[in-house]
Design the sequence.
């Protein structure tokens, strides 16, 4: 009887140990499945962030290229306006010079006309 109780106890203990091992294996498998699901979920977010970063980098390069081109075009426009302004000043200077010459010529003409008139009016002595 004692030996049968010991055998029964040992068999119950073995069965309990087997159930415990099976539950441990199930728990490990569930933990592995949970870990894999979490990693997959995080990888989706990381992959999306990576794609977004790549798009942002491409857009930043495109924006930098456009800004550089805009700066070059702006500089060209500034040079054209500056050259145009210089040409206008030269035209203004030439016009002013021509007016000065015209005024001087009128003064000389008036002086010559006056001297001619005076010399015709005064009798020769």
Sequence:
């Amino acid at each position: 009887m004692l030996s049968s109780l010991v055998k029964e106890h040992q068999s119950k203990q073995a069965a309990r140990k087997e159930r415990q091992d099976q539950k441990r294996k199930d728990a490990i498998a569930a933990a592995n499945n949970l870990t894999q699901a979490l990693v997959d979920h995080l990888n989706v977010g990381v992959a999306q962030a990576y794609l977004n970063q790549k798009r942002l980098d491409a857009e930043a390069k495109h924006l930098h290229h456009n800004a550089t081109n805009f700066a070059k075009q702006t500089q060209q426009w500034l040079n054209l306006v500056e050259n145009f302004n210089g040409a206008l000043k030269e035209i203004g200077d030439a016009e002013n010079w021509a007016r000065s010459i015209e005024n001087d010529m009128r003064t000389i003409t008036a002086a010559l006309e006056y001297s001619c008139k005076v010399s015709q009016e005064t009798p020769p002595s």
